[in-house]
Amino acid sequence: MRITLPNQLPSYPVFYEGIRRAPDRGFSLTSRQTKTALENALRYIPSELHAELAPEFLEELKTRGRIYGYRYRPAGDLKAKPIDQYKGKCVEGKAFQVMIDNNLCFDIALYPYELVTYGETGQVCQNWMQYRLIKMYLEELTQEQTLVIESGHPLGLFRSRPDAPRVIITHSMMVGMFDNLADWEVAAQMGVANYGQMTAGGWMYIGPQGIVHGTFNTLLNAGRLKLGIPQDGDLRGRLFVSSGLGGMSGAQPKAADIAGAVSIIAEVDVSRIETRHSQGWVRRITGDLPEAFHWADDAIKRKEPLSIAYHGNIVDLLEYAEQHNIHIELLSDQTSCHEPYTGGYCPVGITFEERTRLLHKDRLTFRELVDASLRRHFDVIRKLVDKGTYFFDYGNSFMKAVYDAGVKEISKNGRDEKEGFIWPSYVEDIMGPELFDYGYGPFRWVCLSGKQEDLARTDRAAMECIDPNRRGQDRDNWIWIRDAEKNRLVVGTQARILYQDAEGRLKIALKLNEMVRNGEIGPVMLGRDHHDVSGTDSPFRETANIKDGSNVMADMAVQCFAGNAARGMSLVALHNGGGVGVGKAINGGFAMVCDGSRRVDEILRSAMLWDVMGGVARRSWARNPNAISTVSAFNRSHEGDYHITEPNLVDQKVFDALDGL
Fold first, then answer.
1. 363-386 and 352-361 helices cross at what angle (nearest 10)?
2. Of the residues 44, 186, 188, 536, which has the fewest C-beta atoms closer than 10 A?
3. Strands 524-528, 586-594: parallel, antiparallel or unpaired by DSSP?
4. Handedness of CA 103, 181, 562, 511 (dihedral sign)
């Protein structure tokens, strides 16, 4: 049997009005490279159709900057269906089809027609021919096989065994000397590189809910650390300002509401504002700055949460606040600054529509406007910080983009970016010491039945697995899951996120698999955001609070990926770039299908602790105090099965006695 696309040309799809489209990504190939790009795309297609499709693909390449193969997109909305409505020879093959469609449905995907799930460029795969082939392979996949995906391309099915991964995915793993944005752009245009972001290319995105919990934790802990809010308090009467209402940044107003804050989030794309408002994730909309701050001031005085979307540029908003002496207590940014010159950052002074036109017609002018805007953005943040605002980089590569725009004073050491920047990453100040160093991270699951009642049962089961009196983090997470259904977090299929440490994740995972076994719920997909304790090496984000010099190393993410593959996770993924851009991070993730079997129990017992504690071990070795105590306790409680190397700390007086230091 040969798995291939049919030799009948599909009808060209109808593009629904009101659905966002990706901007032109830019065409810069030579004539020889263009021919290769066309050959690369046409090799998916039976040869008798090549002459008809070649001009169509060339037009896409020259006007969109990529060959998407629109003709091969299935009609309509790719909304995830219940697992039993998919074809397949094993539960994993059907489960991954649920997840792929969930990533690409109109409710979730940023640019559904271009296969972009979130983060401006994060794609499930490169084109619709790959999508169709992947679906065909998943329908044929058995528990004796593994499907291999390389930058979106389904390499094929390979014989393996039931306790091996069913799918292995890598994205844009470029050779070092070519691991830069310029060379990646050429590779992407030629159809050999795909930007998987994190859970876009890893097929585990669950909509903005996946980011809400992390944002909630970040804001709450920022308030405790920087504003003096008590451990059992919230952010009522406090103002949080940021930008972005897209796939990930859209979580900000919802998280701020849950944390009790008043928030104003700037967004230049009105369609993203309308999406979040219709979903109930932001309460009010205005394009008028005095009105936005009047609403905010009134809610602050009443100590009631309120989320406001400002339709306009964040730089204008911040300059208005600074000029009118409006105190912003917590400030961040979630524009897609890992892609500042390809549409992720809209310069101040132009409209979103003008941004899109310049991307297509005048890239040089657009780049100059971006750099000038980033410099203004930096200047106004510096003024606000001088007035008492706490600003943190939200892991979107904002400070690196400012540095690249020529603002060298943002560098901490005054020379380069290797030691970070003058303002902290949110991981450096908040997430790292308060969560990651203990092992807490974005554990998540999807009820593949699509039934809301299954999700409600899993919420209650997870709540029973948490002792809210063990740590403050556990109390936060217990309250989160208690209120999850009330807060209406689901966008797309029935999914949940819940920050947990190693033991907590394992306990919940085994409980959910037991519930499947007992027939209480249908099959469940477990996973996590790659933005986690051990999944990602990124010097300015996930590993920003690692200070022993190893923050530039990617051993941890690769080892996490390899260890999860060896232990038999259902899907393992490794990507270049993540949320900060090509060459700036390596990130890995997993998915595990709970089918109720004892086989899955054994894989969970082997893999779940590894997936978390490998990262805690690295953080402990970097001499992070909370990670050291976590490792020490783990070594005692798991003696005989595990032993993690612990550091010997140096008394600083030793250095005082050294000459020439």
1. 140
2. 186
3. antiparallel
4. negative
Reduced to 3 states (helix: H, G, I; strand: E, B; else coil), residue 574 is strand
Q: What is the pLDDT of residue 424?
A: 86
pLDDT per position as a tens digit, 521-569:
999 999 999 999 999 999 988 998 999 999 999 999 999 999 999 999 9
DSSP letters for 228-255: ---TT---TT-EEEEE--STTTTHHHHH
**Long-range contacts of the stretch 636-639 (C-beta < 8 A, 24+):** 638/609
State the pairing for strand pair 167-171/441-447: unpaired
Instruction: Please give the pLDDT value at position 579.
Output: 84
For 236, residues 6+ apart whose C-beta sits below 8 A from its C-beta are 260, 261, 303, 304, 305
Give the Cβ contact number of residue 106 at 10 Å.
17
- The residue count of the chain comes to 661
Q: At what angle do helices 452-464 and 472-482 cross, to 10 degrees?
A: 160
pLDDT at 251: 87
579 close to 530: Cβ distance less than 8 angstroms: no
With beta carbons less than 8 A apart as the criterion, state whether 513 and 605 touch: no
What six digits make up the tokens of 220?
A: 């709450």
Q: Rounded to an integer, what distance in angstroms lies between the CA atom of residue 168 and that of residue 134?
A: 12
Pairwise CA distance, residues 661 & 659, whole Å: 6
pTM (global) more than 0.70: yes
Angle, helices 209-226 vs 472-482, to 10°: value is 140
Strands 536-537 vs 122-123: parallel, antiparallel or unpaired: unpaired
CA angle at 300 for the pair 295 and 303, rounded to the nearest 5°: 125
Burial class (CB in 10 A: 0-12, 13-18, 19+), 324: exposed
What residues have CB less than 8 Å from 460, skipping those under 6 apart?
Answer: none
* CB 546 within 8 Å of CB 619: yes
**Quick one: three-class SS letters along 143-207?**
CCEEEEEECCEEEEEEECCCCCCCEEEEECCCCHHHCCHHHHHHHHHCCCCCCCCCCCCCCCCCC
Instruction: Find, among 336, 370, 356, the residue nearest to 24 by Cα.
Output: 356
- The counts of H helices and E strands in the chain are 22, 17
Question: Token pair of 77, please?
Answer: 């909305």
Six token digits for residue 143: 């528990």
Q: Phi, psi (5° rounding) for residue 391? A: -105, 135
Distance CA 580, CA 561 (A): 19
| Radius of gyration for the chain, computed over Cα atoms and rounded to the nearest angstrom | 24
Question: Residue 209: its pLDDT value, please?
Answer: 87
- Which residues are registered as beta bridge partners of 145? 159
At a CB cut-off of 8 Å and minimum separation 6, what does 220 contact? 229, 234, 235, 259, 476
Residues 483 and 368: their CA atoms lie apart, in Å, by: 46
How many Cβ atoms from other residues are within 10 Å of residue 643's Cβ?
11
